Structures are given as C-alpha cells and as structure tokens.
Amino acid sequence: MAETSPDVALFATCLVDAFRPSVGFAAAKLVEESGSRVVVPEAQTCCGQPAYNSGDRATATKIAKQVVDTFAPFAAVVVPSGSCAGMIKQHYPALLADDPAYAAKAKALAAKTHELLAYLVDVRKMTRCAARCSRTATYHDSCSGLRELGVKAQPRTLLKSVDGLALIEAPNAETCCGFGGTFCVKYPEVSTRIVDAKITDAIATGADLVLGGDLGCLMTIAGRLSRQGSTVEVRHVAEVLAGLDDRPAIGVAKTPPQG
Amino acid sequence: MSVARAAVLSSVRRALGARPSASGVEARLTEPPPGVIPARGRNDSVAMFLEGAARVGTTVDRAASAAEVPARIAAYLAERNLSTAIKLAPDPDLRDLPWAEAQLQTREGRGEDHDTVSVVQAFAAVAETGTLVMISGAESPTTLNCLPDTHIVVVHSRDLVGAYDDAWARLRARGALPRLVTWITGPSRTADIEQEILVGIHGPRRLHVVMIDDGQA
Amino acid sequence: MDATSHTFSANARTALADVKLQRALDRLAEGFPARRRDAVARLPEFDALRDAAVAIKDHTILNLDRYLERFEAKVLEAGGRVHWCRDAAEARATILSICTRAKAKSVTKGKTMVGEEIAINDHLAANGLDVVETDLGEYIIQLRGEPPSHIIAPAIHLSKDQVADTFRKAHGTLPPARPLTESRALLEEARTVLRSRFLGADVGITGANFLIAETGSTVTVTNEGNAELTMTLPRVHIVLASIEKVVPTLEDAATMLRVLARSATGQDVSVYTSFATGPRRPGDLDGPEEFNVVLLDNGRSAMLEGELREMLRCIRCGACLNHCPVYAAVGGHAYGWVYSGPMGAVLTPALIGLDPAKHLPEASTLCGRCEEVCPMRIPIPKMLRHWRERSWQRGPSATRSRFGLAVWAFVAARPRLYRWATGAVAALLARLATRGRFAWLPFASAWTGTRDFPAPEGRGFVASWNRGERR
Fold first, then answer.
1. Number of residue pairs across B and C with CB atoms under 8 Å?
2. For chain A, how many structural domains are there in total?
3. What is the value of ipTM here, to two decimals?
4. What is the C-alpha separation between C326 and A193, in angstroms, rounded?
5. C43-301 — its CATH code?
6. What is the distance between the alpha carbons of residues B136 and B181, in angstroms, rounded to a whole number?
7. B42-212: CATH homologous superfamily?
8. Cα distance between residue C105 and residue A194, in whole Å
9. In this predicted model, what pLDDT tens digit does every residue of A69-118 receive, in sequence order?
10. Do A23 and C330 lie within an 8 Å CB cutoff?
C-alpha cells in the first residue's frame, strides 16, 4: 500500500489547467483557508469525460485508472468542477466495477473526492469568506454539479458572505447552458440557441457578472456574451470567493484593447 | 394469431431468463396491496372535494335532500339562461324527483347529439382531486357524460370517498367492473392551440355537481 | 412514416430558423415546467409515489408474461378479444381485418403513439377506410400530413393562424367570411366537424395508457373526452397497446395515474380517465358490441434484455421533453420519427435501428434534467451513453472527431507529454490573443462560428503551481 498523505490533492481539471489557472490558484487558496494543506499532483491530466461521453469506454477506463492511481495516496481530492468531480464520484465506480484490481480503489477515490464548494461548506464547514466584490452577480448551476452532486446551496452560502456582492437568482438558473462537452461542437447551432436562452435569462436579472462552478459552462457563456458584444463578465465562483477577481474575467484581455 | 401469441410470450420469457417461481404475482392479484395514499385523500372531506372541483372549473351546489335536487338544478339552469329540457338517466333514484314542480321537462334515455343538458348520478365522488366516478350501466348510459353541452351530476355525500382506492374498494364490493368506469375531473378541455386552455372541445362545456347532504337531519 | 432521424443536424437547423416554431417552443418552456413544479409542490407525497410507481413497474416487467396472460384471460372473461402481434405489420393487418369484418367505412381514433409508431392511419386509408383523429392536436396534424411534434401535445409547434389556414383548406363547408382569428372560433369549428364524425363512425380506435391485469381493463387518459366518444359510439372498439403498458391492479393503476398528469401537464389528474372492460353489457343503452385489444410487441421484448430494460417503465408523460434544453431549441420534428426528446432519443434507436437514429443519442448535453423530472426515474443519460457506446463500437474509425479524440487520449494518457503539449499550446494561444479571446481559430470553427473562444491566461496551472507560483 502506498503511504497516505494527510494533504488535499487538487485536481485542477484539464480546462482550468490550460485555460484558467486563476481558478486553480483560487481553489487552492480557499482549500488552504479552510485549514487544509494543498498538493497539486504533477501527473494529473484529464478525468476522461470526453471519451466516456463519446462512447469510447475503453479509453475512458484507461484514463480513469490513471486518475485513480495518481490520487490514491491522498486523504482527499478536491475538484473545482462539478462535472469532473461527478465523473469521479458517480461514474468511475461503475466504469471500473468489473475490474478486480480497480473496483475497490475507484470506490475509495469516489468517496474521498469532493467538488470544491461542497468540500468547503459540507466537509470543512466554512460559512463565510473574507472576500469583497462590489458587483451584481447571478449564479449558473452547472448540470453535473447540481444533479450528480447536489451542489446548490454551498456556493450561495459563501457568496452571501462576500462583502458588497448582490446575488440575484435567475429563474432558469438550473437550465443547461448548452455546453455539453463535445455537444457544443457537434451541434453548434443548437448549443448556441440554448446558451442564448441562458444569457437572456441571466441578463434579465440585471447582473453584470455571471458566476458558476464549471469552466466548460463558463467558457460557453463568456464566448457567446462577448460575441454578442455584451460587457457582462463571467467568472468561476472560486475567483470571487478567494478575492482573486482583480484579474481580467474569462475571455477578457489583460489590458483593455485599443479602439 | 396464436403463433404470434406464443412468439411474443416466448421472447419475453427468453429475455427475462430464469426467475423465481414464487414471484408474488398471484398474491398481488388476489390481495392487491394498498398504494401510497396522499394525505389529501385520507379522509372524505367535502372541503377537499370542493377545492379540487374549483381548481378545474367544476361548479358544485348542495341540496339538503334528494327532493330538493330539481329546484337546485332549475336555479342553476335559469342563472345561466340554459334550456330547461333535460335528458335524465334512467335511474330510479332520479326518476321520481319533482322535476315538473321545478318547471323542468325531462326525457329518459341515452345521450344523443341534440341533448343539451344531461343529469346523471355518480357512483362516487373522490375528495383527493375533486373527481367524479361515473359507471356505465342501464341506469347511467355513458353517452350522457360525453355528448351534452351541460353535464349535471348528482352525488350523495355518503358516496364521497377520500381516495381513488376507496372508490375501487366500493366497486369491487359491487362485483365485476362495469363496461366503463370514468373518472371525470372538470369539463372537457384542450390546450392544443398555442397552449391556451379552452373548455368544451368535444363534450360538456360545463360540469355541474349537485351534492345531496345525507344524514344531516 | 419514413424516419428522417438520420438528418438530425439539418432538421435542427431548419427548426432553429423557423420563427413560428421558436415562438411556440418558448411558450412550451414557460408553461409546462412551471405547471409541473406547482402540481408537485401541492403534493408532499409526490416522491413517495414515484418510488411506488417505479417499484410497481419493475415488478410488472419482471413478470411481464404472467401479467399479460392474466390480462388476456380477464379480457376474454369480460367478452372481449385479444390479438397478439409481434410487429407493426402484424398489428396493421390485424386492425384492418377487424375493420373489414365489421364492414366498416368510417373510423374514429383517439390519440395513440403506438398508432403513430405502426402508421396505422396510412394503412387503413390505403385500404379505403375513412380515418379521422379526434384529439384536437392530432386532428390538426392529420389534416396537415405531419407527425406529432410532442407525445402529449402533438400540435404544439403550430400557431393559431397556421391552424386557421389548415381548417380553411380542409373544411369545404367553412364560409370564407367566418373569422378564425380567435382560438375559440377554431375550437368551435373543430367541435362541429368532429361531432358528426363521432356519430358516424363504425369503428373506434384508442390507445391505452395502462392495461390492468386484475380486471382486463384498458385505461385511457384525455382532457378532451374524445376517447370516451371514440370507445362508446361506434359498434367496434379497438384498443391498440404495447405489451409494457400492463400494471397488476386497480390500486397500481391509481398510483401511476397520481404521477402521470402531474408530470405531464401539471394537472392533479386529467379531465377524463376511463377504464374500459369488455363490450356493452346486457341492459346497457350504449357502448360497442365488440371490444378488441391489439397487444403489440414491436421491439419491447428485445428491450427487456440488458441496458434498456428500465426504459420500459416509461409512461409517456412527456416531462423529459418539456424539460429538455435540446427539445426546447429544436422541437419534436427534428428528431425525425414518432418519439422525440430524451425518451425518443432512447427509444427510436431501439425501434427503428441504431443506424438511422444514431444522431439522436448524440444530440444531448447529458444535463440530466430528464432523469430528474422523470416520474419513473428512468436513467435516460445512462441510456444515451449506452447508445453512444454502441455507435462507437460500430462506427467508422476515420472521422475527424474520432481522430481528435484519439490524439487527445494518447496525450492524456502520458502526463509529461500532456503537461508539455498543453502548456505549449496554452502559452502560444495566450500570446496570440490580443483581446483575451479569438473570434476565429483554425480547427475550431465549430466553436467560433457562433461564439468567441476565450484565450488561455498563460502558462498552465499545474506547472505554475509546482514551480512555486502562488497568488
């Protein structure tokens, strides 16, 4: 047996790693604020969801095993994404159920893996954070986080403690944003119609900031908002909670472009 | 089509594979287990029936006795300026009521195209959803429930039950099921044109209930 | 009908460009989910009822043969007949022969999705019978020669003026000067025309929401009351039902009915729920002389095996359509056959084959709302993944998306290569992006056609963190 580390391993997810390191830093900061030490295993890549949802079970299984091995030594695994955490918690045990070498390990990993907000609020009992943000925001519940993991109240609990932040609920906060992994490129027109409904709903709240817990959704929403010329900003909820929202929002340049 | 029968059943059996023979099927059919009865169906409350009826646009009037029914119906028809010629179910309970005294012209029989008002007795009323349980039979032709514009249902308060299941128990006690049992909850309606709810698409444009209060005296 | 499921993408684009359809879909998205939510809120026992309904169906499916035999015995006892059919062709032939034997000319029909599935109208019409749908929505689409676009609201895709045009074209007796701008006027027009059809019909065909083994009864649910007229006025009543519709007892039917309407339209119960048992009895003044039940397999017994068995719990409430973001975007016709939305995406490949229907399981975001609202707790996303796996196993290996996935999988399985490759690409893109995003990217036009592509911030997180960077 490998030695168990008391540390929390952060599974940044492939999207955060490549596109939005700010979310990784924010997540790490929040986990540390909750009293845990953070490790970021170098061997992490992706959770395998693109293969899993494309029907490529063999590849998904192979990647799942790699993730299981990478994160086995840690006491807990925290993921700043409902969809990747859901993949590990809900789908790995089924995917590896028939593999005698991995079935038990997959279950063990599922049990100790937490979506970031669920970890902070449910496990670490965090009820507030020290951040400040003078904005009007609305929160998009990502589908996997909401339906596979029951993440709903946790982000709101912490957002309510953010000094200066007004949180306004959109009536269809629980409706899909149209990302759907490879769906958004297989059926781009349908995906766009879906995100348009989401955006209309969000803008109608009067918010100038859309928050959420999954980078896939947020890139879809941000990409469509900027294509429409909107100035509404999009961020991962962790950025606001960690006070790291001084950096440009998703899809916004570091310095305002000229002209 | 006995070939098809054997083929369907055998492919079902093949797909299901080996199963325990003591499957609970016989037990379930001979002693049907009770379902989950919602709290709102757990007592035969008139108030609950009225709430359900009101939600779907069923109007409900009360009569202190059966003898009062014709007058109550006459008042309902007069208020809405409706025809006083009614098609009456050939039901001994209804036949001898004082219709003429209430200035109503009655004919008995099944429902027909030109009938505008029908009066039928319900087998039961269900508080759970404000539903009427109508049964077919020589004394209560089905056509009276589905052809006339104005459908008037007479029901005794002693026939008000809490849940659908209570109505089933009463029907079982009566013997084999009649040809048709129909739960009616409101007048005929449709939402097929732009989702707008419109009443009176095929049968009754209005559903009116006269509940006779039994055992009040 | 000929399925057009194989052209889903093109169908979807047509649907997205149809302004009237889009308005209708907006109405649907506003209406059904809110009404369901209110109905559920009024019934604290709703989830307990769902659990009970699931248990009833699971038990019944596990003993399907036994309950079907009992159902048949009870129908015979009540004086009715049961006709078993393996497939659509057998069912069509059976129904036609019942009509021929009855020397029928005119047939009225209640709404039956199984009837759509076997295309019974076309078959009867081709054999000289005059068939008319009596559910208002079904009647409208029959006049237009369209399939239903929703399993419980077949004409939901149409606007008032389209219905008015349809009536003007079809009803020769309609005076041109009569205004048809109000829904009420359309309803009265349909009522008048359909009333004469009800009265003149020789045979009435209905579907069944449930079959009850205990009593041999068939259960139909409508709001219009058209099923009651269809099963009462003609000489012959034919019930067309697939084999998975059976439930054991009257109490079990009540449990199912308690979740059905609430899930479907947000009503506590539909206006008319009829339990039909055999033909007219001695002394009855009305009702058919003949009561026939056509029991159809058509692929259901095959679904009993393996991954799709739970789909046989489906009670056709339409809640999954009403809550599906993809259905709300493109409507039912894009799915290209009889059943649409999430349940259609699971069922269609099982009934017409995976090849022509392979797009349907792909055309889902797997958001899980269908499973969340399904009264029968059917794991629809899991079943869509099952079909995707089947497609993957069969599909050609040379498509672009497969190639992309293979490259990604190769890299993702090699952490050092992955770190280097993703880091390099991210850094390059970050340097190229002048506005924090891309309006166009090579190989990413499927994204950038309608959305900007947010640029990476810079170096990858994992590498940065492990180099000691902190914020």
1. 267
2. 2
3. 0.97
4. 9
5. 3.40.50.10420
6. 7
7. NagB/RpiA/CoA transferase-like (3.40.50.10420)
8. 48
9. 999 999 999 999 999 999 999 999 999 999 999 999 999 999 999 999 99
10. no
